Amino acid sequence: MKLAFKQIEPFVKNPDPKARVILIYGPDQGLMSERSNIICKQIVPDLNDPFNVVTFTPDKITTDPAAFYDEANAQSLMGGNRLIIIKNGTDGLNVILKEYLENPSQDTLVVVEASDLGPRSSLRKLCESSKKAAALPCYIDDERTLAQIIHDMCMHAGYRIDQDAIIAFSSAIVGDRTIARNEIEKLLLYKGLNKGYQGFDGDPVRENIGHISINDIYASCGDVRDWSMDKLVYAIGDGNIHETHTIIQSLFKDQVASIVLLRSVQNHFWRLLSVQSKIKDGQDHAQAIKTLTPPLFWKVEDAFKRQLNRWPLKIIESALDSLNKVEANSKKTGYVDTSLVENCLCQLAKYKPARR
Q1: Residue 107 and residue 82 in contact, taking contact as beta carbons nearer than 8 Å
Q2: In this structure, are residues 349 and 236 in contact, taking their beta carbons and an 8 Å threshold?
Q3: Higher pLDDT, 92 or 5
Q4: Distance between CA atoms of 261 and 232, rounded to whole angstroms?
Q5: Which end of the chain is least crowded, N or C, by CB within 10 Å?
Q6: Any long-range contacts for 96-103 (C-beta under 8 Å, 24+ apart)?
Q7: For the segment 28-49, what is each residue's pLDDT rounded down to a tens digit?
Q8: Residue 111 pairs with which residues in a beta bridge?
Q9: What is the CATH T-level fold of the domain 5-137, as seen in this structure?
């Protein structure tokens, strides 16, 4: 079965029992891990249980299919349901899982964790089309989704958080659900937690114990402003081609999804466009910059002002058009081509302003 966006979270919290194979895939590895754990723990609470949990790799299954079938159809020695987790799933599993789905075990759930699978993936097609399987995508959280997570986690711990703090924080931690949650937890530890508070999985704090401002974001998580993503957008804006290429390669090596790079650069150029438009309408630089939401972090103010002088309005519009074309192409194919993104970003870094 193919899950629509609004069906994903309800499915994670309460998986359809008819789905005996669940494929969890996508570019956000942290979100994939989080959803996999939630689903798996509903089947077997202790994922280290040697009797009821078995982990396979695709190579082990394809070289010894009988071992997989034996485990999938085995009965629990201790009673209850069993769980098979397949790490790093690939299309090579398609034939074996297709045969298994003809008569799957009702006592064993098979969970397949995979990376970003395009719409042509045979494994993804199998799980989307079968009534006995489900395909659960894990796409990169956008800032709106992260803003809600930030709000909910802060409220759960007993804190109100200012809207400008939410906007600034969400834009800084886009990219990986696990990293995002870790940063939010670090913020809450900085502010202080009630004695006995068990975290987001425990009971919420009923009373209001304080509020979080944008200054708290900078004070507790200021290092997020030094992440490579900010370095990337300013390297591109400054026309530093070598640094742009180096940062992109480093981010890809760290398995940061291409769409994260694309969205971060888009966001930066939209902010430049917003300020340049206001300057064209008669505001001075200082007034126009103050209208930005979230406000500029003081460490990048000089660089941002420098890039306002470097990038005219029409060239910014052209840059955004190029970035939007790359994203539009990704929506047609179902995935973002890393080489296409890298080429687009490096071309932007090559821009040379006309001499005045």
Answers
A1: yes
A2: yes
A3: 92
A4: 8
A5: C
A6: 96/61, 96/62, 96/65, 96/68, 97/21, 97/123, 97/126, 97/127, 97/133, 98/126, 100/21, 100/68, 100/69, 100/72, 101/20, 101/21, 101/126, 101/130, 101/132, 101/133
A7: 778 888 899 999 999 999 999 8
A8: 22, 85
A9: Rossmann fold (3.40.50)
CATH code of the domain occupying 143-223: 1.10.8
* Highest-pLDDT range among 120-124, 212-216, 296-300, 352-356: 120-124
Of residues 27 and 19, which shows the higher confidence score? 19
Mean pLDDT, range 210-217, rounded to an integer: 87
Helix count (H) and strand count (E) of the chain? Answer: 17, 7
Task: Pick the more confident residue, 229 or 8.
Answer: 8
Note whether 5-137 and 143-223 share their fold.
Answer: no
Digit-coded pLDDT (tens) for 308-339: 999 999 999 999 999 988 888 776 665 567 88
Supply the DSSP string of 148-202, one letter for each residue. HHHHHHHHHTTEEE-HHHHHHHHHHSTT-HHHHHHHHHHHHHHH---TT---TTS
User: What average pLDDT is seen over the chain?
Assistant: 87
| pLDDT, position 98 | 95
Task: Give the tokens for residue 167.
Answer: 């906007």
**CA-CA distances (angstroms) from residue 93 to 87, 119, 173?**
11, 16, 34
What letter represents residue 341's amino acid? Answer: V
Amino acid in the structure at residue 293: T
What is the dotted CATH code of the domain comprising 228-349?
1.20.272.10
Enumerate the domain spans of the chain: 5-137, 143-223, 228-349
Rounded to the nearest angstrom, the gap between the alpha carbon of residue 269 and the centroid of all alpha carbons in its chain is 21
Residue 3 structure tokens: 């899950």
Q: Residue 191 to residues 170, 180, 207, 319, 326: CA-CA distances in angstroms?
A: 18, 17, 15, 40, 41
Q: Please tell me whether residue 133 adopts helix, strand or coil conformation.
A: strand
